[in-house]
Amino acid sequence: MERYQSTLFSTGPFELGEGAFWWPERSAWCWVDILGHSLYMMDGKGQRTQYHIGEYVTMIVPVQGSNELLLGLHGRVARFSPEQGLGRTLAVLDGNPGLRCNDGKCDPAGRLWIGTMHLTTQRDNGALYCIDHNRPPVIKIPQVSISNGIVWYGDRMYFNDTVTNRVQEYAYDVNSGEIKFLRNVVVIPAELGSPDGMTIDSEGMLWVAQWGGGGVYRWNPVNGQLLGKIEVPAPQVSCCVFGGPDMQEMLITTAREHMTPQQLEAHPMSGNVFHARLPFKGLPVNYFKY
Known about the structure:
Layout: E1 2-5, E2 7-10, E3 17-23, E4 28-33, E5 38-42, E6 48-52, E7 59-62, E8 69-72, E9 76-81, E10 85-92, E11 99-106, E12 112-118, E13 126-131, E14 138-144, E15 147-153, E16 156-161, E17 166-172, E18 179-187, E19 194-200, E20 206-211, E21 215-219, E22 226-231, E23 237-243, E24 249-254, H1 261-266, E25 273-277
Parallel strand pairs: 1-22
Antiparallel strand pairs: 2-25, 3-4, 4-5, 5-6, 7-8, 8-9, 9-10, 11-12, 12-13, 13-14, 15-16, 16-17, 17-18, 19-20, 20-21, 21-22, 23-24, 24-25
């Protein structure tokens, strides 16, 4: 197994860092603190800006042909721009105040896929939704506990529900957006944590942020083999994304949520954001299309 090192990128500490995102048009790294209700943006000069959103903010995706982003919020998706702040709501996902949005990304056709989860992590109360342009949200995978880590590669979609410790593979039709479960491609041993955020490289290998696993792990979805690990000096690793001018850098978020004073003393870097330079290229981000 290859090992790679991460370095400190931005000091929080953030209670629940998530939503790592590279914004090519601004050459900026972005992330959120879900429980801090804030979005952060670091430009190429190292200038960090905080945007207080005022509610849970969980996910960031860019909108094609605009200067805007879409944000996953408590139970809705809304437009946002750094200059104008929060804009109009694109979609309400459930209407149940006990649920909030979690991870989400756009597919190659420009549809938004976003999951929900229960605020007290009751099992099977969330779902994975698809928002196809201006149409209402449609549930694609029901009874999800903690929806996370969704990526596409060719005619395949990969997704994980954190509590299952598995990365699932689906057949994916880019034209219709239809999916069909095929198999579990990665089963993560308990001692390596649970799958959280996920990204993919140009070779089709999966990079999984593993909550409780102290790193981002590189897995081969063809045979389930563990290929590598980025060491992160915090146990609760929550999200990872490729970016940078050559797409060979990775931003990694971590969390302090639920950690005891003793655990925080043992892992004082928890809740910070980290960065790694890698010998692999990531795939460019997909944009939401109205």
